[in-house]
Amino acid sequence: MRNFIQTGESLALVAPYIVAPGGGALIGSLFVVAKSAALAGAAFEGMPRGVFDMAKATGQAWTAGIKLYWDDTARNVTTAVGTVNKLIGTSTQAQASADVIGRVYVMGLAA
Fold first, then answer.
1. Domain 11-106 carries which CATH code?
2. Domain locations in the chain as residue ranges
3. SS3 83
């Protein structure tokens, strides 16, 4: 097939802000997890799908399968539905409200 480019498991992108390895990055309607650190405007590799341990908003208990959103201001994963928070995936396990890290199934499309 002559029009195939890549599998899409890892994408070459430009960082919208400083990203840390394992940190989230929202680029328009695309959400990825950074494979390495990058400064704003620098090239980096991001993974749009998979299960990741990510920074979690504290004060929220999660159950497995709950919808999760990216808070691009706090740069963490939250259960809070809002006009600026984007749906990025679901939790794969329960997390206590005091947890600062949560296990997230990232689906790539930020809705």
1. 2.40.300
2. 11-106
3. coil
Q: Are 11 and 91 in contact (CB under 8 A)?
A: no
Strand order in the sheet with 50-55: 50-55, 101-106, 86-91, 67-71, 76-78
pTM here?
Answer: 0.93
Q: What is the pLDDT along the chain (111 residues), one digit of tens a residue?
A: 788 888 889 999 999 999 999 999 999 999 999 999 999 999 999 999 999 999 999 999 999 999 999 999 999 999 999 889 999 999 999 999 999 999 999 998 888
Burial state string for 19-36 with b = 16 or more CB within 10 A and e = fewer than 16: beebbbbbeeeebbbbee
